[in-house]
Amino acid sequence: MENVHILTQRISARGEFLPFSAEHYRNNEPSAIHSLLEKLQTTLNLEELLTIYAAHAKQIINFSGLQFQSSLGVAQIADSDNSKPPYSFDLDINNEHLGQLIYFCQYPLSGNIEQKLVGLHNALVYPLRNALMYSRVLKLATKDTLTGLNNRSQFNDILAQKLERCRRQHRPFSLMLLDLDNFKQVNDNYGHKIGDDVLQEFANVLCSSIRATDSVFRFGGDEFAVLIDDPEFTTNKVIAQRVMRLVAESNLMKQYQVTTSIGFTLTSSQDCENDIFARADKGLYKAKAAGRNCARAY
């Protein structure tokens, strides 16, 4: 297997901590690594992969937290305590940089420990690369490539999940539909590059207007949706007003005279996906009929 390039952050030595299982691991190292590789090949989920890896690595090093940082973001094991000093390892394969694996450990790593971790890293890198490739493909399948928002496929899945939870737990939620007024004229008069800039700006407005519990989606064109995890018309009105205010304050939106129309509705446990979508769409139609650049409930 290819060697794994190591970049290690050192701290002043206080000795070396070895878990009680280290001697057993040392006597069975080849079979332990083979067992690790077999288990790593059972999943393409990054968090699950790290959890499997961590169970084996703890036979060599006593760490409080384990984290992997890549271009996809940060993944870590459950209950990872990252308050201890970090030891960072660059993981590369075939001249491809996968990311950094970071151990958080109270004690410094000796050369012997580093060497043993390299053996584990050699087992980890291939399953890790497969998991990263899978995550990228999954992201492309669920994300809008222009704005980075969730796409219509992801909307359908999350809406179905929320409706099921609403039926079981009687926790209503809201659906908000939005589109851009005068967007067609922007594309026709200024070209699709400016149109894309406007869509990206509006996506940023939406992300700045919601809470962490809410989800934003782009269906395509200038059609957007927000699932609001709160069963109050007041919450919808606050978010709608915030969106319209930020659109009005945007220099780009003002330059091309783009505003937004918004329709929203609340769910009930008797709703199906078509019911809630049809009501929100009627709210959007009411906003258009009222002169645009406004929000209406249905």
Automatic annotation (TrEMBL):
Residue ranges of coiled coil: none
PROSITE patterns: GGDEF (PS50887)
One Pfam family it belongs to: GGDEF
Domain GGDEF: 171-298
Alphabetized UniProt keyword annotations: Nucleotidyltransferase, Transferase
Leading EC class: transferase
Membrane spanning stretches: none
Enzyme Commission number(s): 2.7.7.65
Gene Ontology molecular function, alphabetical: diguanylate cyclase activity
The protein, known as: GGDEF domain-containing protein
